[in-house]
Amino acid sequence: MTDHHPATLGVLLAGGLARRMGGGDKPMRTVGGRPILERVIERLAPQCDGLVLSANGDPARFASFGLPVIADTVEDFAGPLAGILSALDWAATHRPDIEWVVSMATDCPFLPRDLVARLQQARIDSNAELAVAASNGQAHHVIALWNVALRGAMREALVTEDIRSVGRWAARYKIATAEWSASPLDPFFNANTAEDIDEAERLAALDR
Predict the structure, then answer these.
(1) What integer pLDDT is reported at residue 194 of this predicted model?
(2) Considering the domain boundaries, does residue 3 fall inside one?
(3) Are 119 and 102 in contact (CB under 8 A)?
(4) Distance from C-alpha of 126 to C-alpha of 139, rounded to nearest angstrom
(5) SS3 169
(6) pLDDT tens digits for range 30-79
(7) Is residue 202 part of a domain?
């Protein structure tokens, strides 16, 4: 248990191709003089019972962060759902004591420090199977809480049904939503473009 909620493994989804930034590792872009990934780890680590990094390619490029790096177990860059599945599989093998995995995009430099506690509470209050974060009326399906027991159904959807949308797959289950205010800044602001990085630099001054 962490902060009175069930043990939760965090997976940092860093497997994207960053096409809108010209390629490369998006979470290694800096905001406030620090890599976005470093900011995400600092905020999420105290909320979790361990972190893993979901990334394809040479894992050595993330060695300085000291986290297990897990590649997709589904081929052809199947998107964040494949990264979530890999984390569920990793938890089942390496941390059988953990029933829950929280997924986090690694392009969100301002993520809330109460993310896991509020997702777990929303799930419990709604007696739901999953929980998703939301802000400004928009659900962020890659920032969500997943039950390790669903990994077989997730793999079936990815491999057999070719379902790659996280939201489409999650819609099969009862989902609880935890909503955050977007003022003075959206905690789920994500830096997808060079312009977003410029905006993140401005927002960093508001981040406390």
Answers:
(1) 78
(2) no
(3) yes
(4) 16
(5) helix
(6) 887 788 899 999 999 999 999 999 998 889 999 999 999 999 988 776 78
(7) yes
Which amino acid type is present at position 132?
A: V
Q: Please tell me the distance from the alpha carbon of residue 64 to that of residue 174, in angstroms, as a whole number.
A: 38
Nearest to 109 by CA among 19, 26, 37: 37
Query: What is the predicted pLDDT for the residue at 28?
Result: 83
pTM comes to 0.90
Structure tokens at 126: 């709604």
pLDDT at residue 24 in the model? 55
Q: Per the structure block, which two tokens stand in for 123?
A: 């799930």
Instruction: Give the CATH number, domain containing residue 144.
Output: 3.90.550.10
SS (H, E, C) 88-100: HHHHHHHCCCCCE
User: Does 91 map to a domain?
Assistant: yes
Residue 28 in tokens: 């290694």
Q: Which residue has the tokens 């590792």?
A: 25
Percentage, residues of the chain above pLDDT 70: 92
Domains identified in the chain, total number:
1
Structural domain that includes position 38 = 8-206
Angstrom distance (rounded) from CA 59 to CA 56 = 7
